[in-house]
Amino acid sequence: MLYHHLLPFIWPLVRTKFIIAFQTAVAMEASLSFLGVGNPSTVSLGKMLLDAFSRTQTFLNDAWQWMIVPPALVILFVTVALALIEEKAVTANCSGIELPGKERLFG
Fold first, then answer.
1. Is the separation of the CB atoms in 34 and 46 below 8 Å?
2. Is residue 49 part of a domain?
3. By residue range, what is the domain housing residue 61?
4. Where is it predominantly found (predicted)?
5. What region does 103 belong to: left with phi over 0, alpha with psi -120 to 50, or beta?
6. Closest to 82 (Cα-Cα) out of 26, 12, 10
7. Is 12 domain-assigned?
8. Has residue 10 been placed in a domain?
9. Which of the two ends of the chain, N or C, has the fewest CB atoms closer than 10 A to its terminal CB?
10. What was the pLDDT predicted at 107?
């Protein structure tokens, strides 16, 4: 009874909240690791950026292309991809598209 009456209306909210929380977690972990607050023995994107910016010779040669650009692009792509997934999920539910295994919610 709960599945048929309440879950179809709560599921879009839960999915959106999860995606936003995951996106925020990725950005916050990278930010805190970049500031040096994270675990120094764990490899993360923020730690990679911290190591790149802490070396003085990074910008004197072409090393910045391989030390700064890839971690920054990964952070950018992950956050943008999660935002696009969230937008697709919201528009799919609002436009009345029939989702697999469910009847139309609107229309």
1. yes
2. yes
3. 30-94
4. membrane
5. beta
6. 26
7. no
8. no
9. N
10. 45
